[in-house]
User: Which sequence fits this backbone?
């Protein structure tokens, strides 16, 4: 199912590889069993994600599978331009892209490559906002809180 599952400060991270590209990165609960990387690319992804966990300014250099609509890819490209330690609101990003906040939020939620494409750096104008299509105050929002705090942006 996964080409690697690694420990993360908030649970686990699963990595799926397809051919010569990362196909998906998934946040998983701590109860999921770890899986040693089974390809050189999975090993490279693990090393880069672990480097990010140690240093939030770490850069990623991974081949990502083509995914999403043209609009989603535009949003994801804009996300990559948000530096560690900074956030923008869904509304700000929507204005930048000539769109609306809800569409930007949907594109963020559809991100197949979280951490590498930092959708956690987009927040609501009234707080932390949702994460990974989850608006409740559970596992996914706690992951977002951890990622933001790791980058020096605490959200209660």
Assistant:
């Amino acid at each position: 199912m996964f080409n690697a599952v690694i420990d993360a400060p908030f649970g686990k991270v699963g990595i799926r590889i397809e051919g010569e590209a990362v196909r998906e990165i998934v946040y998983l609960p701590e109860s999921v069993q770890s899986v040693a990387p089974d390809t050189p690319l999975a090993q490279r992804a693990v090393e880069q994600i672990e480097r990010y966990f140690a240093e939030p300014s770490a850069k990623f250099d991974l081949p990502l599978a083509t995914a999403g609509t043209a609009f989603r890819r535009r949003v994801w490209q804009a996300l990559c331009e948000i530096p560690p330690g900074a956030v923008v609101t869904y509304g700000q990003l929507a204005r930048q892209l000539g769109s609306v906040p809800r569409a930007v939020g949907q594109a963020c939620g559809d991100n197949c490559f979280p951490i590498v494409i930092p959708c956690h750096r987009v927040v609501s104008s009234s707080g932390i906002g949702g994460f990974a299509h989850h608006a409740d105050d559970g596992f996914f929002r706690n992951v977002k809180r951890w990622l933001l705090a790791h980058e020096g942006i605490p959200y209660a």
